[in-house]
TrEMBL record:
<dbReference type="GO" id="GO:0003955">
    <property type="term" value="F:NAD(P)H dehydrogenase (quinone) activity"/>
</dbReference>
<keyword id="KW-0288">FMN</keyword>
<feature type="domain" description="Flavodoxin-like">
    <location>
        <begin position="4"/>
        <end position="176"/>
    </location>
</feature>
<keyword id="KW-0285">Flavoprotein</keyword>
<dbReference type="Pfam" id="PF03358">
    <property type="entry name" value="FMN_red"/>
</dbReference>
<dbReference type="GO" id="GO:0010181">
    <property type="term" value="F:FMN binding"/>
</dbReference>
<dbReference type="GO" id="GO:0016020">
    <property type="term" value="C:membrane"/>
</dbReference>
<dbReference type="InterPro" id="IPR008254">
    <property type="entry name" value="Flavodoxin/NO_synth"/>
</dbReference>
<protein>
    <submittedName>
        <fullName>Trp operon repressor</fullName>
    </submittedName>
</protein>
<dbReference type="InterPro" id="IPR029039">
    <property type="entry name" value="Flavoprotein-like_sf"/>
</dbReference>
<dbReference type="InterPro" id="IPR005025">
    <property type="entry name" value="FMN_Rdtase-like_dom"/>
</dbReference>
Length: 183
């Protein structure tokens, strides 16, 4: 069975909603999903451990946009993974990134690229959103070839648009499909 680690930080619920869409899509393909956060913000949150990273066959990693960068909580965690990096324990694990911002030009693409950096350093196989996902060309809110994204707008809504949900689901399914091919 393929194990997907969905690792995220969510301040207002948008990134959590995206994480849930990715997780549900992976589960429809029979994957085991580990939903993990960087800090306990809700009672049911499970804080990520390095063992969770070592157990996964695929990784989905997301945080809100912080001036075009990942949330500090995520950066702090990745800075503790040098021992895993030195041993090359994440090499060739498929991974994707996802984010949310409050405005259309709020740094989504820059954040997706920033989220990618620790994954690339670990030798992970970064998967984007290919253009055979029709919603990528139809979206008027979030969604980029670099990864799934959400735009919460001035009302800061965590409710995803239908296209954003479909892009998240496509990412979850793609991660599992690729991970199973690599097994």
């Amino acid at each position: 069975m393929t194990t997907l680690l969905v690792l995220f930080h969510s301040s207002h619920g948008s990134v959590r909603a995206m994480a849930n869409e990715i997780a549900e899509a992976a589960e429809t393909l029979g994957a085991t999903v580990l939903l993990r956060t960087f800090e306990q913000r809700e009672a049911h949150d499970i804080v990520v451990s390095k063992d969770d990273l070592l157990r996964c066959d695929a990784l989905a990693f997301g945080t809100p946009t912080r001036f075009g960068m990942m949330a500090a909580q995520a950066k702090q965690f990745w800075e503790t993974t040098s021992d895993i990096w030195l041993k090359g324990q994440l090499i060739d694990i498929p991974a994707c990134v996802f984010t949310s911002s409050s405005s259309m030009h709020g740094g989504n693409e820059a954040t997706l690229l920033n989220l990618s950096l620790p994954l690339l350093h670990h030798g992970m196989m970064l998967l984007g959103v290919p253009y055979d996902v029709p919603e990528l060309s139809q979206t008027t809110t979030g969604g980029t070839p670099y990864g799934a994204s959400h735009v919460s707008g001035t009302e800061n809504t965590s409710m995803l648009s239908e296209t954003e949900m479909k892009i998240c689901r496509s990412v979850g399914k793609r991660l599992i499909t690729i991970a199973e091919k690599l097994k």
